[in-house]
């Protein structure tokens, strides 16, 4: 993680100008009481009216100078704070994007949103307005104490003691606030997660009439967040009155003690006037200590949370000098591949297969058999824990992630559409390179152009978040069009036609059959999705239970055969719906007859 000081150093010249403006503005501010002392001693007491006009010009100069330099320092600090927060947010987002899929498996979206937004904003305050005030308070206090000592060092000790007491209280308060702010930051992330999940799944919540439950869950976290903020308020209420008492008593005490010194002839009336003005001028830094401590504690807590994310490192990384394949053909080979996640059972076990360039592989299996994991390993979302995966004869771990992943067009089972136009959703990943003609051709091939072109704005229609407003089949067809428009050498369809009617599915399969130079890996639960593949794998428990062509697998009378019967002969698998279990024998229409079995291939 790049330290905050490094970000500040990047804008050192701008900060230097801002600090110089701050010093000049505060110094000019300190000159005003000295001019007041001269007015009292020389003009009012001494009767030297000729000096008055020069003193008035001095007040005018001080006022104009403060106005100019105050504006410069505030504008520059705010500008630098905005720049640094922008840089930090950019770097944090890039780091999050660089992390592997396993990080997102265990990290909530709401927590990441809190880090990228609220926590960066707290640091923005620290390096901007709050940071400026901290510098100003320190310099302002130091120069006032110097000016006071130059007038009367004994009387200055009263202000020094008051400042020391305020400093002690501020340190104690900062420590207590620091612990509270860490808890507030954590609960803020949880609250964001609960709200994000609920709003993202609001239709599911309503479908299951869970509004009351979700409201209760949100309110419980909201109550926790309220309690933590009340704990913060109690700390402030306990200590802040101390600052108020000190700042109220100090000018009065200065006037009383200083008055005695004037009576004794140790200082003039003008000096006492200036001293009282200084003591009132030192009040606001004391009052600001509590608020500044509050804001600083918040920034420190936020920085700790951000550092924890930077401590995460990607588990999937590129080699130092990645190999680049000049022309990816699309041959895929899994060589005794096994895979398991940390502290979990084995997901895949000894998976071996080869898909020649332009060939088609079908993968079937019950839910949880490991079908999608094969594709995630091919894209290096995770790394295999055993064996190796090859693309055109090259171990994919030696390739750049960019080339590997752009070589694979992926139609996901869970379609994700962005809140953008339909055209830009189809162009996703290659907006600069995919023209409208390609978008329309891909949409036609995916059987999506019909409903798209019936819309008022057609391909410029902005769809809602995650495709709200579109049916499941429409979203799937847009997702297929997205993959077809990229013309990748490898095309993966993960149960991507499950929401389509039979006729539309057949038309899309005809389109896929024409992609002779594209390697196709089709994951499906329907026999119709994989029956024309060059080879079909049937997974069970993370291993290959059966393999072969459609005809060969039917002839084996195994899991694939049972699935075929359940889908084409009305027999339900024993697993109650996956279609990959043992079929029931009754009324199957496929029982043994005298003289042998019915030829199952006749059903194809």
Distinctive features:
604 residues, ABC transporter transmembrane region fold, Rossmann fold, 6-stranded mixed sheet, 4-stranded antiparallel sheet, disordered C terminus
Short description:
This protein has 604 residues and is of the alpha/beta class. Helices cover 61% and strands 10% of the residues.
Model description:
- The longest helix is centred in the middle third of the chain and has 53 residues, at 211-263.
- The model is unreliable at 571-604 (pLDDT under 50).
- It is built from 21 helices and ten strands.
- The protein has a six-stranded mixed sheet with strand order 6-7-8-3-9-10, with helices on both faces. Strands 2-1-4-5 form a four-stranded antiparallel sheet, covered by helices on one side.
- With 604 residues, it is α/β, with parallel strands linked by helices.
- It has four domains: 4-310, Up-down Bundle (ABC transporter transmembrane region fold), CATH 1.20.1560.10; 328-407 and 488-548, 3-Layer(aba) Sandwich (Rossmann fold), CATH 3.40.50.300; 417-487, Rossmann fold; 549-604, no CATH class.
- 61% of the residues lie in helices and 10% in strands.
